[in-house]
Amino acid sequence: MGNDMIRKTAVLLPLLLAGACTSVGPDFARPPAPPTESGYASDGEGHADLAAGPQMQWWKAFQSSQLDALVAQAMIGNHSLSASRATLEKARQRIAAVAGRSLPQIDANARAEYQQVNLSAFGLSDSLAGSGFENPEFDLYTLGAGVRYDLDLFGRNRRALEQATAQAEAQERATEAAHLVIAGRVVTQVLAIAALNDTIATQNRLLAEDERNLDLTRKRQKAGSGTLVEVLSAQGQLAGDRASLPSLEQQLAQGRAMLAVLLGISPVQLGPTDFSLDDFALPVTIPVALPSTLVRKRPDILEAEARLHAAVAAVGVATADLYPDITLGGSITQSTSEPDRITSSKFNAFDIFAGLTAPIFHGGTLKANKRGAEAEAQAAAAQYREVVTEAFGQVSGLLSALGNDSRELAARADAAQVADRSLHLSRRSFEVGNSGVLQVLDANRTFQRANLALLESKANQYQNIARLYAATAGGWLPGTSEVAQSTEAPSG
């Protein structure tokens, strides 16, 4: 009857106490989204459509299969992304480890011993003196198992699981942000290489013009209508323009090396990179997420939110440490000196226990831990607000830049057309003898600067478009990226 009562108590007590369990500490509340009518300020006339957010992998807006292939290669081969994915897997495994604490902990044990009993310890040595009886020696074999279960009355384990889950989510968002950053760096690097290719091509065309001018001045000198000064001026212009090519080619080599690093390969493994800015389409409209949408889809904001969640859960863990804890358990053992009879019920023993642990005095450590966790949660909240503010500022700045890019590009195009017309007229005038070669050289320099400035403005416009797409997290809606996986704790 006594054993039956013990067994019933062992079964019912966890169920009764579990109903009274609670999780102490604050519950996490997701920060509210900002109103859609605020958050961006722009003085420019950008091409942004604020009614929608990008729903695709944003680099595909440039309509270049070569660019798409390079981004896909970076998503697979980039070493920093591989490290980030491994860190994410570690965070997910920690969820399983923490979740296991809420389940009964069962251990088995086996032991083989050789013992000697000291009879003197039991006061038997004097009574046995002279009998020739010595301290007995024998073998002892023990086989058993035990189970322990933490009732988690005040939710310490549940808060720890909540914290681990939030930390895993933060790492998942950090991994998504890393993918977004690498994609952006690949795109901007490809665009930079394309701009350098176009600049080198423009420079080579200008060198051809310089050689043409030099040839004309030499012919005029031979014909007696030109001077040596004109020839030397044309030679100087050609030599000066040639001197800029090595620097551009070095920049191109460095750009290729940086692109190879992003792809996770060596520069010698990188294929041809003969891109031109004309190979990429310029989006007519650029969808930009509204503030309320941005905070729900930009990975770095979601990461900061998850870290805030983890910090709030840590307050619950520290609070639960201030309260008592109850552990239930039991064990069964088999002990015998005859190993072939180790499974016989004749040699078994068991115990069932319930233990209470309550903090009494820890020198203020537990309360200090709680106050520290609260301070960390306040810091996480401030960091979240900072990330959101910086994101809005970044998008606003890029919108303004795009508006300025449009106006600058139009002005640069007009200047290039005027310079081209001026150079054409100067050459005609020079060919018919109405002007000297110096006027042609000046017009040529003006045309060169105008074309290079136009190319630079066009490259800046493409780069800012790419940065804006990345800043609005195009193609990285939560749950749609290839790194998004479930972070739920395993059952059972």
Automatic annotation (TrEMBL):
Annotated Gene3D superfamilies: Outer membrane efflux proteins (OEP)
A Gene Ontology cellular-component term: plasma membrane
Swiss-Prot/TrEMBL keywords: Lipoprotein, Membrane, Palmitate, Signal, Transmembrane, Transmembrane beta strand
Membrane topology value: Lipid-anchor
An annotated Gene Ontology molecular function: efflux transmembrane transporter activity
Family: Belongs to the outer membrane factor (OMF) (TC 1.B.17) family.
The name this protein goes by in its record: RND efflux system outer membrane lipoprotein
